[in-house]
Amino acid sequence: MKQTDIANPDYFHKVVDCQWACPAHTPVPEYIRLIAAGRYSDAFMINWQSNVFPGILGRTCDRPCEPACRRGRVEEGSPDADGEGVGVKPEPVAICRLKRVAADLKDDIRHRLPKRAAKMNGKRIALIGAGPASLTVARDLAPLGYECVIYDADPQAGGMIRSQIPKFRLPESVIDEEVGYILGLGIEFRAGQRIDSLKALLAGNGSGAYDAIFVGSGAPRGRDLDLPGRKEAAKNIHIGIDWLSSVSFGHIDRIGKRVIVLGGGNTAMDCCRSSRRLGGEDVKVIVRSGFEEMKASPWEKEDAMHEGIPILNFHVPKAFIHEDGKLTGMLFEKVQAEYEKGQRRLVSTGEPD
């Protein structure tokens, strides 16, 4: 009989669905068992070795592991702890939040992190962008003796973790801690340095040539809407992730009382909840699709609705309404979904816009 090859992720697809569904294939059952035993630091280190940012992910991960959780299949139809609720589909194990539990309750784990390389191997690596990708690469290469230099136009490392995720979801102290673990491995961070030429960077930008470059700049661009009135009312119209970044860096600290958020993704949920905290009283999320088809995670939609933010579905934006350059409203077309040969299309209901 062949020995089980646990180095092959396909193994987990057969026996541990949650671990297979995780993009990092984090050993979920192992760290949950450690949490149950009160070994929070051990559980944290298993996560750190696998997914690098346990405290951050425990607050922000999209949780692909939880829909894959076997509990929903194995226990479906079983009564609850009180002997009631037969036939009710049980919730998955709270895998994401348990990751946060390990991060919040751990001891000081700095002595368990990899040590700086005792001897460098003579290779220099430049990393563009100080977000999760570059930080992960640097974390893995630095202990092997590579000299890693990270460049970023922003004054602090973290990338979109720091600039686009609202602080009420992800405290800055958590970012500082987990980014600090990596930079503390002897990695040089050159803040406020924008890279415009890979050729010049490879030559070292005057500080010595590099053997390789890792481009981890991400794709921080939102989608605009080219609708009538967009240019005329531009002062009061914002691109989601750019606006979140401005809020994060303190460039925006208040907003008008009436706010419309267009879109049904997680960014829209962050924007509407941030708007409420910045003074928005009448905040609405308006989406083209149906509620179930929205790209936002179910818990993100729940959080928004718990804060009294309504989500209006099947409304297609048609125009920005403005007076003297000031945005006064929006025009929408009400639609409904029709299906033909498995393809969905949105058609007008015929109701007035």
Commentary on this structure:
- The chain has 353 residues and is α/β, with parallel strands linked by helices.
- It folds into 3 domains: 10-111, Alpha-helical ferredoxin (Fumarate Reductase Iron-sulfur Protein, Chain B, domain 2); 113-215, FAD/NAD(P)-binding domain; 234-348, FAD/NAD(P)-binding domain.
- The chain has helices at 10-15, 17-21, 28-36, 40-51, 54-60, 71-74, 95-105, 132-141, 160-163, 172-183, 198-202, 240-248, 266-277, 298-306; strands at residues 124-128, 147-152, 188-191, 212-215, 258-262, 282-286, 311-312, 315-323, 326-340, 343-348.
- The strands form 3 sheets. It has a 4-stranded parallel beta sheet.
- Strand 8 (315-323) and strand 9 (326-340) form a beta hairpin.
- Helix 3 (28-36) runs antiparallel to helix 4 (40-51), helix 12 (240-248) packs across helix 13 (266-277) and helix 13 runs parallel beside helix 14.
- The model has no long low-confidence stretch (mean pLDDT 91).
Please outline the helices and strands.
Layout: H1 10-15, H2 17-21, H3 28-36, H4 40-51, H5 54-60, H6 71-74, H7 95-105, E1 124-128, H8 132-141, E2 147-152, H9 160-163, H10 172-183, E3 188-191, H11 198-202, E4 212-215, H12 240-248, E5 258-262, H13 266-277, E6 282-286, H14 298-306, E7 311-312, E8 315-323, E9 326-340, E10 343-348
Helix pairs in contact: 3-4, 3-7, 4-7, 5-7, 12-13, 13-14
